[in-house]
Design brief:
Blueprint lengths: L3 E3 L9 H17 L4 E3 L16 E2 L2 E2 L1 H12 L7 H13 L2 E9 L4 E9 L3 E7 L13
Helix pairs in contact: 1-3
């Protein structure tokens, strides 16, 4: 039998490395409780922009909205970036496989991506959300 930890926690908005540090702490705690698999929320690293409009309405964007969106882009991570490398180290240390939602920066578009990290393998797989719903299409490819 596999013990699974379903994580219900908020990320640290606009600060991917702080979200990784929070996730690593949670991972250590669930490992101590015997979890073998930990599943984190969608967009945990990079943050889900709940309520953010980024100053956008059809045919117009505000300067403040552009600046906030730029901050959001800067908080996104790459699959081969230092944030996931740091989290992979936590996975290795705890022996717990983790599935974590990230905001992935891949070229120009951002993607809402689920990443699986496994001990001894690092990134074992990933899946990009290819059909964002509703207004998510304004921010994710």
């Amino acid at each position: 039998m596999t013990r699974v930890a379903i994580i219900q926690a908020a990320s640290v908005p606009y600060d991917a490395m702080a979200s990784v540090e929070k996730a690593a702490g949670i991972l250590r705690r669930v490992a101590e409780q015997g979890a073998q698999l930990a599943v984190f929320p969608e967009a945990f690293i990079g943050g889900y922009p709940k309520g953010a409009t980024f100053g956008s309405v059809v045919g117009n964007r505000s300067a403040a909205g552009r600046a906030l969106y730029q901050r959001y882009v800067e908080g996104a991570v790459a699959l081969d970036g230092p944030e996931l490398a740091a989290f992979a180290e936590s996975v290795e240390q705890t022996g717990v496989t983790a599935v974590v939602g990230i905001i992935e920066r891949h070229g120009r578009p951002l993607y809402c991506t689920a990443v699986t990290l496994a001990p001894g393998r690092g990134i074992a797989g990933y899946h990009r959300k290819l059909m964002p719903t509703g207004q998510e299409r304004l921010i994710w490819g």
